[in-house]
Design brief:
The strands form three sheets. A seven-stranded mixed β-sheet has the order 1-2-3-4-5-14-6. The protein has a seven-stranded mixed β-sheet with strand order 8-9-10-11-12-7-13. It has a five-stranded mixed β-sheet with strand order 17-16-15-18-19, covered by helices on one side. It contains ten helices and 19 strands. It has three domains: 112 residues, Aminopeptidase; 140 residues, 3-Layer(aba) Sandwich (Aminopeptidase); 97 residues, Nonspecific Lipid-transfer Protein, Chain A (2-Layer Sandwich), CATH 3.30.1050.10. The protein is globular, with a radius of gyration of 23 Å. It has 405 residues and is an alpha+beta fold.
Length: 405
């Protein structure tokens, strides 16, 4: 039988537990943390609309907090859908209480509360080979493009720019970002972090520009490193972004520009790939960006218009029938006819995808769907493999750094 400890698991009350939680997180994630570090972590617990204490969990034992998990609530774009996402971060166990299974107990309790709390899906950035036991699988592969500064070759001069640095993101800037991020799979509907600017500090150069109507029309957040400029976040017309980055490289005397967390299907990635660049794709078996389906019915219901549109442009555009998709906890039927995908109860049909936890990879478009179907334990019957290729294509989703936790 599994070991059950005397740990008491509950949602934290920030007014009561905030200071102790901040010290725990500082000790776990920082060696000899300074008081300023503890204070910064404590302040982050007071960001409204981001951290969800009622969905987070702490474990208490021997009169102290020994485990902690923070849950952040936001909306993720997948096609035209907006999936209510539980972002998982600050997963910490007190150094003196490790190797006892305490985090396993705490994490299972947290996961059990996500569906009643109204989440569709959950995402985290995790260490290798740990989170699979809680149902988390690949959410996407990480793409990074590196370009020598002389190879950026902008097709137009950079526009006049203004600083958008500061501890908070203005409403005007957030609106501009959302306008350009619309249609970018895996991106978050901003503001996240309560509008606090994560990319703020001495080594960050944040620049924005306006269109002819004086409306904010794009922005870049750049990390100035020893011999390169790292484009931590960017929005705007791709050629303009390239022109601004090229100008900064010249002004700062940096030899190359690096674009991490860049969606392969984004206009900026496409623009860079048209020239000389190096593209690296990091595929991790179980680590990095990981996702778990919380409510399969809700995910597929929100995605139904996109599924119909994807099928309409495929060679299966005239297919009729029912496809059942399961994640090991729930089965959902897709009633398919030309131009329509309707969510129905799972019934008898030869066309079935028993995806287990890897249903999350299909929902996110994490990889080639045939790669997902080839994973151990995943079973596709009837026309399911062909339907999966049409319904759940690889989307190249990414979450920009500004929203990561």
């Amino acid at each position: 039988m599994p070991h059950v400890s005397s740990q008491r698991i509950a949602a934290p009350v920030i007014a009561t537990h905030g200071d102790e939680l901040a010290r725990l997180l500082a000790d776990v994630f920082h060696e000899n943390p300074a008081p300023e570090t503890v204070a910064r972590i404590r302040r982050s617990a007071d960001i409204p609309g981001w951290l969800r204490p009622q969905d987070s969990r702490i474990g208490q034992l021997d009169g102290r907090i020994v485990t902690s998990i923070s849950v952040f609530r936001y909306l993720t774009r997948i096609g035209g859908a907006r999936l209510v996402t539980a972002g998982i971060g600050a997963v910490a166990t007190h150094r003196e209480y490790r190797k006892r299974g305490l985090m396993r107990e705490t994490f299972n309790d947290m996961v059990a509360g996500l569906r009643p709390a109204g989440y569709d899906i959950s995402l985290l950035f995790g260490i290798p080979d740990f989170y699979w036991q809680f149902g988390y699988v690949r959410a996407w592969n990480e793409d990074t493009i590196t370009v020598r500064a002389e190879n950026l070759r902008p097709g137009r001069p950079a526009p006049p720019t203004e600083s958008c640095a500061g501890p908070e993101l203005s409403g005007e800037l957030v609106a501009c970002m959302n306008r350009w991020l619309d249609g970018r799979d895996g991106s978050a509907v901003r503001p996240t972090r309560g509008g606090v600017n994560k990319l703020h500090g001495e080594t960050i150069l944040a620049l924005a520009w306006r269109d002819n109507a004086e409306r904010l029309d794009g922005a870049v957040f750049l990390k100035i490193e020893e011999n390169r400029v790292v484009v931590a976040d960017a929005c705007g017309e791709a050629e303009t972004v390239v022109a601004v980055v090229a100008g900064v490289c010249a002004e700062q005397g940096r030899a190359e520009a690096v674009f991490p967390h860049l969606s392969y299907r984004s206009p900026l990635s496409r623009r860079l790939r048209l020239g000389d660049c190096q593209m690296a794709r990091n595929c991790r078996r179980n680590g990095g960006a990981l996702a778990r389906v919380v409510n399969l019915h809700s995910c597929l219901e929100k995605l139904a218009p996109d599924l119909a549109g994807r099928l309409a442009v495929s060679r299966l555009h005239d297919w009729r029938g029912c496809l059942v998709v399961g994640d090991g906890r729930e089965e959902v039927g897709l009633d398919i006819a030309p131009g329509m995908v309707r969510i129905v109860p799972a019934g008898a049909t030869p066309h079935r995808i028993a995806a287990g936890d890897h249903a999350a990879s299909l929902i996110f478009g994490a990889e080639d769907p045939l790669d997902t179907l080839a994973r151990p334990g995943v079973v596709a019957g009837g026309d399911a493999a062909e339907l999966a290729a049409a319904l759940f294509p690889e989307l190249g989703p990414q979450l920009p750094e500004l929203d990561r936790y």
